[in-house]
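Example record

One chain of 219 residues, shown exactly as stored in the release files.
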Amino acid sequence: MGFIGSGSIGRTIAQLAVGAGHQVVLSNSRGPETLVDTAAELGPRASAATSEEAAAAGDIVVVTVPVSAFPHVPAAPLAGKTVIDTCNYGPERDGHIPELDNKSLTSSELLLRFVPDALLVKAFNNIFFKHLLSLARPAGAADRSYLPIAGDSAPAKAAVTEFIDSIGYRVVDAGTLAGSWRQATGTPAWGTPYGPYSNEKGQPVGEDAIRAALATATR
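Predicted structure tokens for this chain:
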């Protein structure tokens, strides 16, 4: 697993991945030396590298950066790879991006313009990082939660589903990248199903609840 970006959601996915036996290679915009402590905390399955190295190393690569940083995501090493996009657009942080403001593109479709040969799957963008950590459950647990994913490649979706299953969740297929707005910031599927931020443990969410939240989204 390669990670381009190592903020709260990236570190949480990396922690779950290491716990499930995956090797992780972390990167950020400031250089690998700033991630030495994080990698050490995660243990021997974790290492730090440049963004290009992390992209090249991962069988699956997680892009978890501000939308404004999309132009800096290394495209060449992601060609042909399954890439998980966790990113949410926030004009107050990213500045205004016309195609996102007028809803002619989703943020995932915008990312695809910068990494056109990647097999992109939207995932993990609708859950608070503390809930993501606390709601993970072993296979077969009755209270396993569901996460929506969206993408245009069936093989990439299958790979992401397998990864998500390995770290403690099940998946709802939310359709295409063009429809991934249904799990974006401010929609019924974003955050709310898993409980308020004030409850750091969150609450398990079943398949029907996620499907209903996706279905009631408006743009």
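Notes: The first helix runs from residue 8 to 19.
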